[in-house]
Amino acid sequence: MSEQTDVQKLIAEECDSIKNLLLEKNKAYGNSAVDPVKIFSKLSNEEQIKVRIDDKISRISRGQQSSIQEDTEQDLIGYFILLRVCRKFQKIKKHKEK
Q1: Spatial distance between the Cα atoms of 90 and 35, rounded to a whole number of angstroms
Q2: What is the DSSP string of 12-47?
Q3: Among candidates 18, 67, 84, 23, which has minimal Cα distance to 10?
Q4: Which residues of 46-68 are buried (b: 16+ CB within 10 A; e: fewer)?
Q5: DSSP 65
Q6: Which of 88, 66, 69, 89 is nearest to 77 (CA)?
């Protein structure tokens, strides 16, 4: 395998950072993003993640300080990944229930 370019290394670094962030939050909060307890909100799991995405996009559009915006961008990327995970998780749950 050939040596990675600087850009390829940065892509891998960013992806690893998001993966680690999501795994840390999952350890801290459990599967709350893809399987919430729904005490107050009765939205579907997928719709709840979409609401979080909307909130993050709103924060970015308001142009916050760069350090806060970077965290918000990481959260936004994480929520898009969680949205994909949620869809796959729901399929797995439905298959197991059969």
Answers
A1: 9
A2: HHHHHHHHHHHHHHHHHHTTTTTS---SS--S-HHH
A3: 18
A4: eebbeebbeebeebeeeeeeeee
A5: -
A6: 69
Kindly report, residue by residue over 2-35, the tens digit of the pLDDT: 799 999 999 999 999 999 999 999 999 999 998 8
State both tokens at 5.
């370019």
Contact 79, 52 (CB under 8 A): yes
Q: What is the pLDDT of residues 50-80, one digit of tens each?
A: 999 999 998 888 876 666 777 888 999 999 9
Name the pTM for this structure.
Answer: 0.85
